[in-house]
Amino acid sequence: MPTLYPDEVIDVLRFNFEVKNENVLKAFEELKIRFILFYPNGKDEMETELTEWSKKVMEDIIESKNTAYNNGYK
């Protein structure tokens, strides 16, 4: 495995998740992601609720609906 230097970034994982339309608001309210970094002498853990990110997503959804409506789309 190559050496990872301070401030170096590598993509190691991508994931997608699906949520039914009727559950999207509840999913954003409860969404948490837990990161665990393992190395030979231990591990580091971090959990985030993504609260700010989910607020931004919801604002974008509301804005796009308003824009679509104003442009004659439903």
Q: Which class do the helix and strand fractions yield?
A: alpha+beta
The number of helical runs is 2
Query: What is the radius of gyration computed over CA atoms, rounded to a whole number of angstroms?
Result: 18 Å
β-strand percent reads 15-25%
- Specify the overall morphology: elongated
Low-confidence regions: none
Element string (H = helix, E = strand): HEEH
What does the main sheet amount to? Answer: 2 strands, antiparallel
* Fraction in helix: 25-40%
What would a concise description of this structure say?
With 74 residues, the protein is α+β, with helices and mostly antiparallel strands. It has helices at residues 24-30, 51-70, and strands spanning 33-39, 42-48.
Helix-strand layout with pairing:
Layout: H1 24-30, E1 33-39, E2 42-48, H2 51-70
Describe the structure.
With 74 residues, the chain is of the alpha+beta class. 36% of the residues lie in helices and 19% in strands. The chain has helices at residues 24-30, 51-70, and strands at 33-39, 42-48. The chain has a two-stranded antiparallel ribbon. The radius of gyration is 18 Å and the shape is elongated. The N and C termini lie far apart (51 Å).
Short descriptors:
2 helices, alpha+beta, single chain, 74 residues
